[in-house]
Input
Amino acid sequence: MSLANGAATRAAWQAGCFNLRVRVCSESVCIMQIKLNRNHRFYAVRSAFTIIEAIVAMAIVGFMVIALYSGITSGFFSVRFARENLRATQIMVEKMEVIRLCTWDQVNSNGFIPTNFTAPYFPQGFTTNSYMSTLSQGLTYTGAISVTPVTALELNGGYNDDLRKITVSLSWTTQNVQRNRQISTYVSRYGIQNYLFN
Output
C-alpha cells in the first residue's frame, strides 16, 4: 500500500479528502476515500463566542429570568387577592344569614342591627399548626350594614312599606389599594322569619 505523491496529497488535503490507493498488478485502484472536516481540525481552536454574542445571550437570559419572576409574583398576588375576596364574601354572607333570622320589629328597631363592624381575615381561634397559631389575625375588614326603606324607583309595588333593603358593605386594604365589596337583599314583613319564630 502506498500513498500518492506529495503534490497529489497536498492537493487532496486542500480539497478535504485523501485517496487511499493500492497498487495491484501495476494498476492503481481507489478503494477508499476519507473525508476530513478541515474546519473542525484547524479552526475549532480559534472559534469562540464574541463579546457581542455573549452580551446578547446574557440579555436574553436576563429577560427570561425577569419574566419568570414577574409571572410568579403575579400568580401569588392573584391567589392572595382571590383568598381575600373569598373571605370578604364569607363575612358578608354570614352577616346576611344572621339578619335573615331577625324579626320584622328587630330589623326596624334602631340599634338592634349594628351599623358598623370589623372582622379579621383569620377567624378567632383559627390554628391549624404551630406556625399559624403565632400569626396575627391578618388584615382587618371594615364593614357597614344599612337598613333602608324600599323606594318606588327600586320596586314599584303596593307592598313597598312591607319591605326593607339591607346592604352589607366591606372594605379592606391590600398593598395600599382600597378594595370594596357589597351585597344587598330585601327583607319582607311576612318573610321566613315569621315561620321560624311564630
